[in-house]
Amino acid sequence: MDRFVVPTDVESALAGAGFRPIEAAGTGWLAVALDDPDRRLEMHVVPAVADVGTSERAARLCAVRHEHLPQVLDVVELSSGRLGLVVEHVDGLSLAQIRAARAPLADGEAVTVAIPAAGALAALHDAGLSHGAVSESTIVVRPDGRPVLTDLRGALAGALDIEGDLRRLVATVLDQMPGADAHLVSDHVGEGSLREALEGLLTVPGLDADQLVDACYDATGPEPVRLPDAGARASSALTAMAREGDQARVPGVTRRQDRERRRSRAARVGAVVVTAVAVLASGVAGWRLLDHEPAPSPVADDPVQAAVELSRVRAQVIGAGDVSRLETVDIAGGPASVADLQLLAGLDGARVDGLAVDVQDARLVEDNGSRGETTDVAVTSVMSAHSRVPADGGATVPVAASEARTVVLGLRWTDGGWRVWDVVEP
Fold it and tell me: Distance between terminal CA atoms of the chain?
């Protein structure tokens, strides 16, 4: 990249953090670390003033964690009226690029794009933010098949438009599907097509993410997106992500009954899959952006939802091997904290790559009065296949995915919200 094409304030901010721009990336620049070419991030310029409102939105955006959103590492003030949004680099093809190289998406492929994107929008909306730029250019499918909703500049604008985000998503998905010949690729002959269902949503007042997800499941089941010239890279795990755990439909159970069972999960749209995010923030640790510290992921007041979120955060802590973050999950000195400290010590500095938890069910356990201030939540989850990379550079040790397992998290309310006191078998 011609260095003079990059604005001076962008180049200076990146250089100060140990990065250099190497090429344009959509609405910003892709940059690599000076000491590690494999460590990459993106900086997107946002015309905005660093006032109190913008700073508060930036903090909330940095706290959002979702499998189908790039992690926002920070927001830096570049120059007067210009902010730099520093985000995880998402490698892959946009829907626009995919459609330019292949036929329209079949119903199942469209569902695989729509459901995770709806979940990503719901995560932003729950944080009081809007995306604002949903299009075929901002939905990127990674080489491993994960769709990611990129370009988060609009989240700093301040205007909350939940319906607008969802209608843009519906319109975008429709644009990637066949038109008059939709019935030729419908997965379920005789049932309403996905196109008909999505077109109907465009006229529904008060459209929300649940309605979009329900319409998708009512029409068909998800299937992997066929990536041009890279079909082998689209693994079967893609379908599992869109199905919120890939539970097989029980014979004799109707699609509506199956949907209702899914909707009873505490995780709802946001619990498709929770993956330990590769932490890129080490490369920008020197930035003091908008005078805010990175905010921890919020924990819901509802103990069931909190149990789901704490399960997610624990996977991130174990993946990072960061003992200092255990206090965001466990109560110091409690049985769960002691066990997790022993687990991290047993890793002996090894790195855990690819660890993810799929929460399949979460429910309150009836209180018989014997647990005092502890609230019990039964959580059923599956740990993904992952690998353990020894600190001494030895051979990577693969670890197979676990079977579904149910444990009871004993939660106690603290100044920081719900935390885990102990973990027992039901």
Answer: 58
